[in-house]
Amino acid sequence: MGKLIAICTSEKKGTQKQQVEAAVLREDHGIEGDAHAGNWHRQVSLLGLEKIEAFRERGAEVEFGAFGENLVIEGFDFRNLPVGTRFRIGEALLEMTQIGKECHTHCAIYHMVGDCIMPREGVFAKVLKGGEIKVGDEVSEIKPDPGRAFTAAWITMSDKGSQGLREDESGPLIGKILTENGYDVVETILIPDDEDILKKELMRLADQRQVNLVMTTGGTGFSPRDITPEATEAVCERMTPGISEAIRAYSMTKTPRAMLSRAVSGIRGKTLIINLPGSPKAVRESLEFIMSSLEHGLEILNGRTSDCARK
Fold it and tell me: Which end of the chain is more exposed for a tag (fewer CB within 10 A), N or C?
């Protein structure tokens, strides 16, 4: 059990958040009147009181809201809780969606003392159920449902697609098939064929969002701009060659050109990353072949089952 110590909001992005005694959380939006509320996964930011106090002990005089946090809560080490953890505050219900964030423009605190704890200690949540909250409210933790749907994301690699010169059909098709198979698709991304950008997105999805399954499409051929396999190998801790070999073997029954695919697959943390071909037809064929086995692999990876043997 924790306690709500402070509520902080700002009407404009980039401005200091100010403390208020009470606020209204609106379902699938965030805090009413806060600039960071909206239809996305980072509706409300949370920071532990203990982390702020430790920062203050280093000699920094910071007020609540200085790190851009909406809610200061006592009693939780947020960074070590899994994404999917829920928090009840009064009638309101929040679900944690991301741990930490990349700091693109350093805040005033960073410029003053050379450090900011929000990028590594802060977490973000979406509002599942709205309600009024006030300073002093109790905050209770609800552990993630072990039987909840696996989360997924897809990334399309395409220079022309990212410039609006070509319609992306493969990415949305991946999302459609995943949804039809019971996955919760939490992010869809279209980026150019850039290795650094892809690595950054894969690491963010695996480390901060803790997505269970990430599928890429495109960039697996012989072109000098085809860098998807290299980016995937660079971020993975363990490779899973059997998945990519199975896709290639099945695709070879459709076209001998499937031998030219350099696609790979691997694991980062508890996230499975799979490279798929670039064409919608090849995407559909690949997923039809591997989809039935993926769920069991994800169950093992995430500790939901330990039995691989077939009776």
Answer: C
